[in-house]
Amino acid sequence: MPVLVMKFGGTSVATLDRIKRAAKRVGVEVAKGYDVIVIVSAMSGETNKLVGFVGETSPMYDAREYDAVVSSGENVTAGLMALTLQEMNVPARSWQGWQVPVRTTDAHSNARIEEIPTDNITAKFGEGMRVAVVAGFQGVSDEGRITTLGRGGSDTTAVAFAAAFEAERCDIYTDVDGVYTTDPRVTDKARKLDKIAFEEMLELASLGAKVLQTRSVELAMRYKVRLRVLSSFEEQSDEAGTLVCAEEEIMESNVVAGVAFSREEAKMTLISVADRPGIAASIFGPLADAGVNVDMIVQNISEEGRTDMTFSCPIDQVARAEKAMADAKAAGDINFHDLLADQEVAKVSIVGIGMRSHAGIAAKMFKTLQDEGVNIKVIATSEIKVSVLIDRKYMELAVQALHDAFGLEKTT
Ligand code: ASP
Ligand code: MG
Fold first, then answer.
1. 338, CA 20 to 30 Å: which among 175, 253, 255, 262?
2. Is ligand 1 within 6 A of the CB of residue 352?
3. Half-sphere CA count of 354, side-chain side, radius 13 A
């Protein structure tokens, strides 16, 4: 029988009533003839509570025990979901990560899935079980210790199971009804997309659209897992939500699929660094070692052998970046006059696979911002994305203007 993976996020299993509602959705798919693998998150708020307990008990905690504690929320929902399905006369059984086993690296609190053997669950399907309920977010290391996959990791569990079992689709039930052209809180013209390409979703996910864990989208793209994001709070039809799929499946789309933004950016400028071979390596090496996620980079024209180097990073990493640069300077590895941190910036990006075949998209973006009187501080582009750093106070204005300019609004 064809396999379907259905993942329910924390808000979709927040109460026993909601678990019941989710179980009914599962029942509908079972009735259609699917063998279903259900991946569950912890009840909403539960993982945060457990993370808090760990921090209070042991500030410099042992990551193995952190995983032992924070993985437990999913165990509860997996068992409750299996019981709820059994009450509905749907043959169901729960699995914790180690029972499958979901084999992962030993990078505790941020492990990666290496292998999911299918024989165990497939055998049960063969015996008449119709639903395997699997605790998301967790696995087991070679040492036999429980691991977790990083916050939001149940999305990745779901996609990995869909890939391993060659599922027809992976449905991600959440508290939003799909992927939007931009955040509806910024403009009420934001429109739900019926389909979006993996590449676009990956850009939107990593740019701060928080619907899916970025790693889950990477995995879906690699294994061509069709992902559907949909709400567990609305009546469902087969066309509900947003399908994340290969671009070949999207007949016609806008050149720009969406406008993403991030408020939590900082712009850092090293003033007057010596312009010599290896200078970029001696700046960005120490930043990487310090765990600073550098995004945009601009090196200016040099004069008399000296140049300014600008980069952006998340705002909560500014102190780390400053320390890494100060240390490198003290060690004599780099030499600069000053390091300026502008913490009042935001990043706004337009994303779309159509940009590959259309000229003038960046120019149109810049003109739109000019018309609004918004000054651009840094620009970065990729094949399917143009990003700019601007003053944070203009972020909403810029998003709305770009959303209009690229015709993303609702048509009805
Ligand atoms: N419960 C975990 C978290 O809150 C994993 C997940 O829900 O995806 O991050
Ligand atoms: Mg989530």
1. 262
2. no
3. 16
pLDDT digits (tens, 9 = 90+) for 162-206: 999 999 999 999 988 899 999 988 999 999 999 999 999 998 877
Name residue 339's amino acid: L
Q: How far apart are the first and last CA of the chain?
A: 40
How do residues 93-140 score in pLDDT, each as one tens digit? 999 999 999 999 999 999 999 999 999 999 999 999 999 999 999 999
Compute the distance from residue 254 Cα to the ligand 2 centre, in Å: 27
Question: Which residues 6+ apart lie within 8 Å of 56 measured at CB?
Answer: none
- E strands, 41-120, are 92-95, 103-104, 113-115
Question: Which amino acid does the sequence have at 187?
Answer: T
DSSP 198-234: HHHHHHHHHTT-TTS-HHHHHHHHHHT--EEEEETTS
Instruction: Kindly tell me the sign of the dihedral angle through the C-alpha atoms of 268, 274, 277, 282.
Output: negative
Q: What is the pLDDT of residue 98?
A: 98
Q: Of 115, 233, 103, 224, which Cα lies nearest the Cα of 167?
A: 224
Contact indicator for 154, 135 with CB cutoff of 8 Å:
no
Rounded Cα gap, residues 214 and 155, in angstroms: 9
Give me the helices (H) in 331-388, please. Answer: 361-371
Pocket of ligand 1 contains residue 152 by CB under 6 Å? yes
What's the burial of 6, exposed, middle or buried (CB within 10 Å: 0-12/13-18/19+)? buried
pLDDT digit string (tens) for 249-296?
Answer: 887 778 999 999 999 999 999 999 998 899 999 999 999 999 999 999
Which residue is it, tokens 């004599």? 332
Ligand 1 mutation target, pool 8, 13, 47, most atoms within 8 A of CB: 47
Show the beta-strand stretches assigned E in 23-176: 35-40, 92-95, 103-104, 113-115, 131-135, 138-140, 146-148, 169-174
Tell me the sheet residues that pair with 379: 388
- C-alpha 75 to ligand 2 mean position (Å): 17
| Ramachandran class of 263: left when φ > 0, alpha when ψ lies in -120 to 50, beta otherwise | alpha
189 Cβ below 6 A of ligand 1: no
